[in-house]
Amino acid sequence: MEEDEEYPWNRHSLPIHILAGAMQVNEDCSSEEEEEDYQWKVLQMAALAVGGAEAERANRLERRKKHRLYLQRHDLLKNPRGSTPWQKLYHGQNDRAFNTTMGFDIATFNILMNEFAPVWNTNPIPREDTRAGGVPRIDRRSLDAAGALGLTLHYLNSTMSQITLQQVFALVPATLSRYLNFSLQILHRVTGDIPEAKIRWPTAEEMEEFTKIIGERHPVLIIWINGTAYGAFGSINGLKLPTASADDSEWQNATFNGWLHSNVTNCVIAYSPRGDIIACRLNAPGSWHDSRVAQPIYQKLRERTPDGYFLVADTAFPRGTEQIDKKIKAPIKSGQRLPSDRTELENLLRLKRQLLSYRQTAEWGMHALQGSFRRLRMPLDANDTAARQRLLETCVRLFQLRTRLVGINQIRNVYEPIWKEAEGEDLWNGFEGMVYGEVMRRDRVSRFHITAVEQ
Predict the structure, then answer these.
(1) Would you say which domain of life the source belongs to (predicted)?
(2) Is the whole-model pTM more than 0.90?
(3) 170 with 79: CB under 8 angstroms?
(4) Which of 138, 172, 325, 451 could join 319 in a cystine, given CB atoms 3.0 to 4.6 angstroms apart?
């Protein structure tokens, strides 16, 4: 009988150290009994080796469990389309809850849904083990289109970890990651087609309108020439977003900012007095100077901005060439020469104060952007430039949508009374009556007020 038929272990499949020991034993074998004894010893040695390897593997897996922190299906709610926290929030249809968790009211969420759902429902979710051109099985997905959009907005509007998102939406880690990546790509695509989400440089007529709005609060920043208003039409500033370390040493060096001693991504954003973004440059390396990042905006100022209009910046923001310097104004720098004439000095100081006051709107805009989309406060992925660009573009487009449709914006809230006066106080008062009429009717404090009525 062949050895391989009687015993499952083949000499050629055993480890070297076992074969070496077996060969040493086999050299001294001279009888049939000794041969059988030899084969038995080989089997014992193989069993010992395999058993030891399996025990070591089990111990290694047990040690790894302590460091692998993730949730499995039995740790979560059974049905993602059932009674999950997200389903409770969505079916509650409460504006306050939507604004708190996703940054948008129900009406604006539905506008996004009208664009998002067709793409979600007609495209397969990318996976390595499926064909890219396959037919999507909508009924087999853990989330419908509303759930996928809600997942993405929860992610962008917060700094919560993916474990928390798994609990809210009842998704295992792999599914959550695939859904989130796919939904971010869809949201980036569809927001580019929504008119209210677009970023557009203002026309000359819009610049004049913006100047009038600013001039109502800052009269020194407006000049009237032949019945046309000229002056400040917006504010501009740089924004540095935290970025993770890069695997590539050259890109790591490019994103490192020596002034901040950290890795950052540079952006430059300009805001109108209505709170929306009129120009931006995103996703520049952190080592770049703001003057280099702002080159596309400089070009718009040179070629598409009539003389007499300018943006307001802080003293640290570069104003470029002399031609650009006339279209970007900032408060007085420390050490700047002051005029000796008292009248000129008072006018200059008054201009400085109002430039400084309006410059604050750029800070409000930056805080509103990062406050609305708190994901930007988390370190960005330094190794995927395309994904980082998509994330930033999606956030600024959603910021436009939130400002224009939801109306939650500090710049807008400060300058909105000026729009009301310009567009007709009666219309605005009537609108407020329609929206808040029920609240005013139930007001139990107003009866203690004395109201003067003109006869």
Answers:
(1) Eukaryota
(2) no
(3) yes
(4) 325
